[in-house]
Amino acid sequence: MTTSLPVEHGAEPTGTEDNYLTCDRGIKSWIFTLDHKRIGVMYLIFTMGSFLLGGVFALLLRTELLTPQKTIMDADTYNQMFTLHGAVMVFLFIIPGIPAAMGNFVLPIMLGAKDMAFPRLNLASLYLYVLGAVFAVLAIAMGGVDTGWTFYTPYSTETNTAVIPMTIGAFILGFSSVFTGINFIVTVQKLRPKGMTWFKMPLMLWSLYATAIIQILATPVLGITLLLLIIERALGVGIFDPALGGDPVLYQHFFWFYSHPAVYIMILPAMGIISEIISPFSRKHIFGYTFIAFSSIAIALLSFLVWGHHMFTSTQSPLASTIFSALTFSVAIPSAVKVFNWLATMFRGRLVLKTPMLWVLGFIFLFGIGGLTGLFLGALATDIHVHDTYFVVAHFHYTMFGGPVMAMMGGLFYWWPKFFGRMYKENWGRLSALLVFTGFNLTFFPQFIMGIRGMPRRYFNYPEKFEIFHQLSTIGSYVLAFGFLVVFFTLVHSLFRGKKAPANPWGSATLEWRCPSPPPHENFIEPPLVTDPYDFSILEYDEASDCYHLKPSAKLAEDGEVA
Amino acid sequence: MMSEETGTRDFSILGLKLFLAGLTMLFGAGLVGYLIVRLGAEQWPPAGIPPVPWTLWISTAVMILSSVTIHGALDGAREGNQRALKSGLILTMLLGLTFLVSQVMNGAAILQAVLSDMKELYSFTFFMLTTLHAVHVIGGLIPLGIVTRKAFAGAYDEKNHTGVRLITWYWHYLDAVWIVLCIVLTI
Amino acid sequence: MANDMTGISMLAQSDGRFWMPDAASTSAAEVDWVFSFIFWISAFFFALIVFLMLFFVIRYRWRKGQETKAMPNSNLTIEIIWTAIPFLVVATIFWVAFRAYMKLTVPPSNAYEIQVVGQKWKWLFEYPNGWVDDRLHVPGDRAILLTMRSEDIIHSMFIPAFRLKMDVVPGRYSKIWFKATKNGTFDIYCAEYCGTGHSDMTTQIVVHAPGGYERWLREASSLLSPTLRIQDLTDAAALARKIKSGTDPVSEFIRTSLTDAGTAGINAWNGSSEPNDALKALLISEINTILKGASIYDPERFASVTVAAETAALMEKNPEGEDQVQLNRFLLSDAMPDFFTRGPDMVEAGRYIYERKGGCASCHTLDGNANVGPSFLGIYGRSRDLEGGETITVDENYIRQSIIEPQAKVVLGYKDRSVMPTYKGRLSDREIGAIISFMKSAEVTGNEK
């Protein structure tokens, strides 16, 4: 037996009713908002601000490295620059970037819910994020930090820079991350509307769920580690001090127990975005849904077992290194499975090469290099040589920039019409993707070569034989920065001059595209009709409004399957 | 916002469980740090320093007792027995405070023993673990106070007592953590 | 990735290799093999992914009116295949890399051990005979074990040409071993970030040809070397205190001449405890740097110092090279008489050369009995008749000449037996001076009896 779809679900929103941006006005309505979308937008603004700050540090760094000796700053300033670049990018930008900014906005809508399970906790996590950021800025104002973003002891307990405010900042940001994670899991488990079974969920939700597991279980370990570091610095006694019988390498174990899973906090939601974009832009159902979904969970669980691969040269026992190496390679498998499934999704599709899809193609290219160069690092013999060289710097930028940043940009261009109800200039968007892709490769590919040839990380002065590569890299970073300038201009321009966005400009089948753009305050007036998130046969294109609608003829089977 | 009562109750318990899972990682990391220092030491406790005071077990007894009283409060709430609810909560608060006093005395005893050399890891790790736990006890007393006040205001009945359930879960958890810590510290 | 290997030849290295640097150890060969293995596997998969992606982009790009071709949304067989293939690939890579790792992790039991100290921002190497150097010298083709420790924070010993890296952690010893296969000089870096001078914490490793290492070590640490060794320190604490807080001009001069590492080390020392081995090594290294520099003499600086006759005599000569170093050491010793010895014991050094290096003992006895050559006993200062009728006095000049040109003035009666080769170029001036000091010593002149 089947029932006809209710008319409202397919109805074109008139665009005159209030949306989440206009339903309430004034600064207070933002500061005290409990709306996940507004919180998401505020996160977006703050994380993008942090990205800008971290990017400025990066450009200063790269400029300094134009010559083998001093170019524009002294060694101490340089050391602070790379520390601040790393700390700001990791703690203030990438970790909260996709989950807290984009995840907050899209998770409840994609699920078909009105909001998060704990809206107040959600707002609290934003406040904590801001408080953590304030401490980070305070650390910068107090003269900066020069420990590297990893805060390795004993250096971090004896340097005379502002380590304490920075670590307090990271500690607070950890709480923010835990609260977001709890909210995600409870929301996904408890707020699924009728018909939204686990396997009807968009893959983005699977990856956010997997991310949340890591956020909840790994972050507290960072918390206690930083706390112990702060105490050791303040009181001069602690378990990382070798003079007292403590162990500085224990700090590294604790730190990476969090920080390795943390890279999956960054990459898993990125992979979710790729799955969300690649299917509608191939006009074809995602291939291997179940395998993509479970590979996210597998990555989340395996991520807890591999931290020791950061420590092959740390004097950890060869046996431990061997075990960590073997476990590390296991993470490669679910990642490879995802890539193959994405390619299979493109196979025999109809590829729409619009801006979001270009970022996705860039992602696959760059993440491919990032992932494959990880093999050299997971492998014991080769890691010994390339560890702590520019090879590692290049590798993690290919994974952490080529991955999350490319995906986040893809997601931003994909959901921008939904977030703010405006279309951007398509060709400008494409140009920005191309510029960023080119600049990125020019910046970081030379670093692989330098690294293999032995150029150590975090070097202020460097041997002249590396100069040409550093110069290429620096030029690349300027191209990259210009690319982001185009991104910024394209998006901001659309807010003022952009065409009004229809509800479903791309023809996606996930639920957020059933709401008007931008969505109303509580997303759905009544629980939405749940369909297969990647079945586009239920949609039809309407040229007049340049928008996709549910076919009125679409029928919903009783078991929830659209016939 | 999510106004369905039954739903809210479910969420909160799940949220709390997730929070406790995170806390377990926190205490777990603390314990691992402690064990690594202890197993790496030549002598534990160091020469001339007495072992941890036996009075830790008094704290343990108080903590276990408070678990019993808070469970009594929850049973009271489930059965609509307001008197059992209120007295259970009050007793738990008193026992919680007693626990903290007992811990302060234990800490003072350790401090006394190491006065000559404050910069060693024996007492540091002791304070690291006990303070970490005590902070969570203090953090528990605040919501416990709120729940108690609401109980006296008559906010809970047989159907609606999520607050009591949440604080009971949390309290049992603190009890379990303390027992583990106490065993590890004393053996 | 692979295309870069041909296209950008200007970026290649001097030996034509593109990726890995010079390979100069047994482990480098192993690691490079593993690297190439992973490289080609990665290159293959990357090419495959990018090819498929671009092919799909071109072949299946959106065209108006074309419908998506029907295709199943999943296929268990194909999922299993592309789960299994990466599994087999990474398992193989793990195994290959693990085997190579075991070889470079487990040192052979007969390895030659050198101690390494890492400190902000300097590497120091302690050789088995107590010699301390800021470059790492090793014999080629022999297993070397580095036992490393840190005096402050974590550093990391990185020798790119050997594909070796190991952290140096305070509170524990870390070890690495290698066997160099190429002679020459290679870079050593600190790979673990250690603050302001991190990128200056570099030095070189010198791999010697057979015999070269022993020669270097003997010469560097020779009994004749006027530089300081650890055992020359007689009162390290007093010396360190003088450098830390002495107000006399010489102390101030030393203090201002210290390297950053030296300043940091002396500042970190509490001023009273007995300096540990690392601080001693650092002091030695610092003072040796000063000794090896220009003359430290300056009338004002030494106004209140009593300059010994020996010092003054040497100063007269306007010495160069090692004698200059010796002069500096004399001057420092005059200013700080009780903290370290004045220099090598020339008599002992002479004995060493007589017995070992020069091999003089096989022909010249010390007991008065003639052997292949005349006995040295009591020879100094005596008159001797030569072949050809001349008579000379055995003095410094005669001895020097006899070592450089043995056949020029042969003592009467030794003409047929004279097989002595020239020592020109085999013994330095200083070494000849040491032999003369030895021959002038009471034991050899016989004056003690």
Which SSEs are present, and which pair or pack?
The complex is a heterotrimer of chains A (563), B (187) and C (449).
Chain A: E1 2-4, H1 7-10, H2 27-31, H3 36-64, H4 75-111, H5 119-141, H6 155-158, H7 163-190, H8 203-235, H9 248-278, H10 289-302, H11 318-346, H12 355-378, H13 380-386, H14 390-420, E2 422-423, H15 426-452, H16 467-497, E3 499-500, E4 539-542, E5 547-550, E6 555-557
Antiparallel strand pairs in A: 1-6, 2-3, 4-5
Helix pairs in contact in A: 3-4, 3-5, 3-16, 4-7, 4-8, 4-9, 4-14, 5-7, 7-8, 8-9, 8-10, 9-10, 9-11, 9-14, 10-11, 11-12, 12-14, 12-15, 14-15, 15-16
Chain B: H1 5-40, H2 56-79, H3 82-114, H4 121-152, H5 162-186
Helix pairs in contact in B: 1-4, 1-5, 2-3, 2-5, 3-4, 4-5
Chain C: H1 4-7, H2 26-59, H3 76-105, E1 112-119, E2 122-126, E3 132-133, E4 136-139, E5 143-150, E6 155-159, E7 164-168, E8 174-179, E9 184-190, E10 203-208, H4 212-220, H5 236-245, H6 249-257, H7 260-268, H8 277-291, H9 309-316, H10 321-335, H11 346-357, E11 383-385, E12 391-393, H12 396-404, H13 429-440, H14 442-445
Parallel strand pairs in C: 1-5, 4-10
Antiparallel strand pairs in C: 1-2, 2-3, 5-8, 6-7, 6-9, 9-10, 11-12
Helix pairs in contact in C: 2-3, 5-6, 7-8, 9-10, 11-13
Can you give a write-up of this model?
The complex is a heterotrimer of chains A (about 575), B (about 190) and C (about 450). By secondary structure, chain A is mostly helical. Helices cover about 65% and strands about 5% of the residues of chain A. A two-stranded antiparallel ribbon of chain A has the order 1-6. A two-stranded antiparallel ribbon of chain A has the order 2-3. In chain A, strand 4 and strand 5 form a beta hairpin. The longest helix of chain A has about 35 residues, at about 75-110. The N and C termini of chain A lie close together (about 10 Å). Chain B has about 190 residues and is mainly alpha-helical. Chain B has one domain (about 5-185): Cytochrome c oxidase, subunit III, four-helix bundle (Four Helix Bundle (Hemerythrin (Met), subunit A)), CATH 1.20.120.80. Helices cover about 80% and strands about 0% of the residues of chain B. Chain B has helices at about 5-40, 55-80, 80-115, 120-150, 160-185. In chain B, helix 4 runs antiparallel to helix 5. The longest helix of chain B is centred in the first third of the chain and has 36 residues, at about 5-40. Chain C folds into four domains: about 5-65 and about 75-105, Helix Hairpins, CATH 1.10.287; about 110-220, Cupredoxins -  blue copper proteins (Immunoglobulin-like), CATH 2.60.40.420; about 230-335, no CATH class; about 345-445, Cytochrome c-like domain (Cytochrome Bc1 Complex, Chain D, domain 2). Helix content of chain C is about 40%, strand content about 15%. Chain C has helices at about 5, 25-60, 75-105, 210-220, 235-245, 250-255, 260-270, 275-290, 310-315, 320-335, 345-355, 395-405, 430-440, 440-445, and strands at about 110-120, 120-125, 130-135, 135-140, 145-150, 155-160, 165-170, 175-180, 185-190, 205-210, 385, 390-395. In chain C, strands 3-2-1-5-8 form a five-stranded mixed sheet, covered by helices on one side. In chain C, a hairpin with a 2-residue loop joins strand 1 and strand 2 (about 120-125). Residues about 1-5 of chain C have low confidence and may be disordered. Chains in contact: A-B, A-C.
